Amino acid sequence: MRNVYGVLLTLIASFGIVGNVFCLVILPKTGGSKSAIVMLFTLGVYDTLFLASGIFLKYLPSITFLGHTPVVLSNLVSPVMYPVILLSHLGAAYTTVAISGERCIAITAPLKVTQWLTTRRVKVVTVLILVWSLAYNIPRILFFAPRAYWESSINSTWYRLEPTDFSKYREFL
């Protein structure tokens, strides 16, 4: 059952990445509202990063018939992918809220939308979402660090994320 879970979710996430890449290529070429395009483009980037990091951190390592290779790969990329999955998850959530706000303004004040929702303002909002997502997740990123350990069953050194000494301080918690 674990193999089925890993294979199916890897396929679904891969199709999602392909679909997002198509949308990211096509979206800027549409003639829609610039503010909506910027927000949807940002959401597509967050979603693609979330799916890619999910493949490497969760789905591939659960496929046992591939041997130790997916787990080794997951352990190698986890120091990079763990912060990416945290950042993209929170960034996608706040970008979705921003899209809802942008659509609300576009519907309730259609005559003033071009004054209120300039491309520059929307870009500032997306950058603020990125900065907030990063600032919020810094403690969570500092909670874990890659540590080398010897795995005797395969006679190899592996890396895995383990709680840091910093995470044990009462002030941090």
Automatic annotation (TrEMBL):
Q: Which domain of life is it from?
A: Eukaryota
Q: Which InterPro entries match?
A: 7TM_GPCR_serpentine_rcpt_Srx, GPCR-Ligand_Int, GPCR_Rhodpsn_7TM
Q: Which SUPFAM superfamilies match?
A: Family A G protein-coupled receptor-like
Please tell me whether the keyword Transport is annotated for this protein. no
Q: Which residues form the G-protein coupled receptors family 1 profile domain?
A: 19-173
What are the TM regions of this chain, as residue ranges? Answer: 6-27, 39-60, 80-101, 122-143
Can you name this protein? Answer: G-protein coupled receptors family 1 profile domain-containing protein
Coiled-coil segments: none
Which keywords fit this entry according to its UniProt record?
Membrane, Transmembrane, Transmembrane helix
Q: What does UniProt list as this organism's lineage?
A: Eukaryota, Metazoa, Spiralia, Lophotrochozoa, Mollusca
Q: What does UniProt give as GO cellular component?
A: membrane
User: Cross-referenced PANTHER family, in alphabetical order?
Assistant: FMRFAMIDE RECEPTOR (PTHR46641:SF2), FMRFAMIDE RECEPTOR-RELATED (PTHR46641)
The record's listing under PROSITE patterns reads: G_PROTEIN_RECEP_F1_2 (PS50262)
Record's keyword annotation contains Disulfide bond: no
Q: Where in the cell is it found?
A: Membrane
Q: Which Pfam families match?
A: 7TM_GPCR_Srx
Tell me where it mainly resides: membrane
